[in-house]
Predict the structure.
Amino acid sequence: MKSSLLIAVTCLVLVLTACQEIAQPPTTPVPGDSDTISSQDTPPASGEVRNPLEPIPGEEDMLRGEAFIESAQVAVLESFPVQISLALTGNLPTPCHYLRAKVEQPDAQSRIYVDVYSLAKPGEACAQMLVPFETNLPLGSYASGKYTVFVNGKQVGEFSV
């Protein structure tokens, strides 16, 4: 009787464990202490668009890696003022890497450079497998003119306002 009860309890534990959802790594974590105030905790100034992937304080000590971009498309949103967005799909090197992007202001030739990369905590053991990502990065609104967008040094699109 005891052995059949033990087998039943073991089977129940295995079934419940198998039904548990697998945790996915976040693409925009806040490294370090949760008490730290980051640039993501403060609202943007009026007219400014917040970049959810912008570098935040505390990431200086993290290891920078590549983000493998498969596609990047510029989208002009029908709004007032006109907003520009960048749709990105690709892969991170491991589940321990976090996606980051830094958007530069347009230069004198109306070129907008976007640096997309990944960060990982030093010394963290991690499975060596690619992790797909898909995100929309708001670039903001711009004055009238024709602009060219570059991601990691490669031209990905143009738009006119």
